[in-house]
Design a protein that fits this description.
It is built from nine helices and eight strands. Helix 1 (13-24) crosses helix 9. 47% of the residues lie in helices and 15% in strands. The chain has 213 residues and is of the alpha/beta class. Strand 5 (127-130) and strand 6 form a beta hairpin. The chain has a single domain (2-116, 166-212), classed as Rossmann fold (3-Layer(aba) Sandwich), CATH 3.40.50.300. The strands form two sheets. A five-stranded parallel beta sheet has the order 2-3-1-4-8, with helices on both faces. Strands 6-5-7 form a three-stranded antiparallel beta sheet. It binds adenosine-5'-diphosphate and adenosine monophosphate (AMP). Residues 9, 31-32, 35, 52-53, 57-59, 64, 85-86, 88, 92, 162, 171 line the site of adenosine monophosphate (AMP).
Length: 213
């Protein structure tokens, strides 16, 4: 099963993608996590990506597309995957479609997690991330067992630099201008469904599972 998660930053794509990956036994591939891991390791890609991420801008397509095409070609992705945070532009979607077509494959589902902009800023300011294992929490809606500590790996939880309110507004503007057109793209491809992302985390997941079967 090949799945794409769509939705505004903070809509809950990562939260749901991790649950889908666990239930269906497919890898969760997050371009944001890949960039953050590169930043942490101090790679050239990380250095370049950080310049854009800190400003709330998208990393250029030429740094993003090949990376994803390589990742989905790995053996663990042979039965499918859930892509989280990619594609984010029409050229990225076209590059993905082309790479899949070359192998006689296609995306099975694009899941749009809908949350109004008004809810996003509070979601993001309460988000706490583990930069070691990629787990995500929320101070109110999904708190860790011990404040400030990752349940999974025990590392420290942080507020991401790009989750500060001034950057979140910019990311939302970028989402509406560059990423929202993908809803139409995948709707035309006949693979889109939407879920109401304002419901609690388990209810959103139940709605997704009801569609995926
Ligand atoms: P995205 O991957 O779309 O940027 P996340 O999955 O990281 O979003 O979720 C953003 C924040 O909102 C996190 O702190 C997460 O714990 C919280 N969250 C996710 N889904 C819900 C939900 N259905 N209700 C309330 N909070 C949620
Ligand atoms: P995320 O973890 O999905 O919220 O992504 C964090 C940031 O990484 C985004 O705001 C972008 O700067 C960058 N990023 C992640 N995925 C992509 C992508 N597919 N295209 C461009 N930039 C991306």
């Amino acid at each position: 099963m090949k799945i794409i998660m769509l939705g505004a930053p903070g809509a809950g794509k990562g939260t749901q993608a991790k649950k889908i990956a666990a239930k269906y036994g497919i890898p969760h591939i997050s371009t944001g996590d890949i960039f953050r891991a590169n930043i942490k390791e101090g790679t050239e890609l990380g250095r370049k990506a950080k310049e854009y991420m800190d400003q709330g801008l998208l990393v250029p397509d030429e740094l993003t597309c090949d990376l994803v095409v390589d990742r989905i070609s790995q053996p663990d992705a042979s039965n499918g995957y859930v892509l989280d945070g990619f594609p984010r532009t029409i050229p990225q979607a076209e590059a993905l479609t082309k790479a899949l077509e070359a192998r006689g494959e296609k995306i099975d589902y694009a899941i749009d997690v809908t949350v109004p902009d008004e809810n996003i800023v509070s979601r993001m300011s309460g988000r706490r991330a583990c930069l070691k294992c990629g787990a995500t929490y929320h101070l109110v809606y999904n708190p860790p067992k011990k404040e400030g500590v990752c349940d999974n790996c025990g590392a420290e939880l942080v507020l991401r630099d790009d989750d500060k309110p001034e950057t979140v507004q910019k990311r939302l503007n970028v989402y509406h201008a560059q990423t929202q057109p993908l809803i139409d793209y995948y709707s035309k491809a006949g693979v889109l469904f939407s879920v109401d992302g304002t419901q609690d985390i388990d209810k959103v997941f139940a709605d997704i599972v009801a569609k995926l079967g």
